[in-house]
Amino acid sequence: MADDRMNAATAYRLACEGTALLWRGDFHNARQLLRALARRCNPAPAGAGFHRYRQAQSQRARTLGMLLIPFAAGHTIPLRRAPDVREACEEVYGPATGPAVTPLRELLGVIGAHEWRRKGVEVPALGGRIHPHHGVFSPVRGEYVELVAEAPLPSGRAAFDVGTGTGVLAALLARRGVERVVATDLDPRAVACACENVDRLGLGGQVSVLRADLFPPGRAPLVVCNPPWLPAQPVSPLDHAVYDPGGRMLSGFLDGLGDHLEPGGEGWLVLSDLAERLGLRGPGELRAAVEAAGLRVKDRIDTRPPHRRAADPADPLSAARSGEITTLWRLTHR
User: How far apart are CA 91 and CA 241, in angstroms?
Assistant: First the structure.
C-alpha cells in the first residue's frame, strides 16, 4: 500500500525490486510520483544502438508499471481528486465487471487515447480528421500519407488497402477518386476504428472494411500496404504498428502480391529504411525479396520524414533517424 507519505526514492527502490505499489492517496499526487519515478529511470545512452535502447525502454515500462490505481465498480476511481474515466475505460476495457487495479501509466494512456479519439488528428492530405482508437497507430507521421497522396494512380476503378489501421490510406484513395476500396486488418480494434473513420468522412459508399490476414479475396489494379517498419518483437498493442516480428507482414505482402494484382496493376509498398540503418535488415535484402516474389520495381518515390528527435543528440537512435528515408515502392509483375 502506498499513499501521499511515500517519497519518490522509496517508491523507486521498491518498483525496481519488483514490488507493486497500490495507491491509496490523492490521484494528482500519484501523477506527481509517476513523473518523479520517470526522471529516475536511466535512458539508454546516446549511440547505444537499437537493442540497448529497447532494453532500456522495456525496463522503464516495467518500473513505471508498478504504480497501481484501484477501481471500484463501474470504472470509478475511489481516490481524492480522481477524474471521471468511465467513458475512456469502457472504450478500451469494455463494460466494468467489478473492482480492479491498473497501472497508472496505462490509465493515463487510456485517458490520452480517449482525447485523441474524441478530437481526432488533422490529416492535411485527406482534408479531414482521423479519430484513432486506443491501440491503433495514429497518423501523426504524415510523410507516408503524403506519398500515397502524390503517387500517380494506375487506375481509379478499385484498390486494396492491406493493414489499414485507422483507415487513413483507404479514405485517402477514396478521396482521390478510386471508386471502390477494400481495406483489411487482422486487429478487430483497427477494423472498428477504420469503419468509424470511413463513416465519419462520408465514404462508406466507396470503402468497405474487412477483418482479414493481409489480402481480401480477388485482385485489384492497385494494392497498397504500409506495414510495420521494424522487424522486432512488439511488447504492447501499439507496438504492432511499428514492430513486425521476423518481417512477417512485409514478407506476406510481397509473396502474396502477385496473386492479388491485376495484369498491369501496381502494388504500393510504403516503407522506411530505418531497419537498414539500425542493422535489423541487411542492405539489398528488400530488393532481393521483391525479386524472389516475382515482382519488379517500376519506380520509387522518396521523402525524408521531419524528425524532431533526429536533432536531439541525447536520443539513442538520433544518428539513424537523421538519415532516414521513407519510400513508396511501385511494384509490378515481372
Answer: 20
* Whether the Cβ atoms of residue 183 and residue 210 lie closer than 8 Å to each other: yes
d(CA 224, CA 159): 8
Element (H, E) at 69: strand 67-71
**Residue among 112, 10, 111 nearest 67 (CA):** 10
The reported pLDDT for the residue numbered 129 is 96
How far is residue 278's CA from residue 276's CA, in Å, rounded to a whole number?
5
Residues forming beta bridges with residue 180, ordered by sequence position: 158
Q: Please, are residues 67 and 33 in contact by the beta-carbon 8 Å criterion? A: yes
SS3 state at 196: helix
Share of the chain residues as helix, strand and coil, in percent rounded to the nearest 5: 40, 20, 40
Average pLDDT, the chain: 92
173/324: higher pLDDT: 173
Grid cell in block for residue 180: 471502390
Handedness of CA 171, 174, 179, 181 (dihedral sign): negative
Q: Which residue has the cell 481526432?
A: 120
Rounded-to-integer distance, Cα 63 and Cα 42, Å:
11
Cβ proximity of 316 and 49 under 8 Å: yes
Grid coordinates belonging to 101:
487495479
Q: How far is CA 89 from the centre of its chain?
A: 20
Which string of b and e fits 193-231 if b means at least 16 CB within 10 Å? Answer: bbbbbbebbebeebbbbbebebbbeebbbbbbbbbbbbb
Q: For 23-57, how does the pLDDT look when each residue is reduced to its tens digit (9 = 90+)?
A: 999 999 999 999 999 999 988 776 678 888 888 88
Looking at residues 127-152, what average pLDDT do you find?
92
Residue bearing cell 535484402? 285
Secondary structure (3-state) at 65: coil
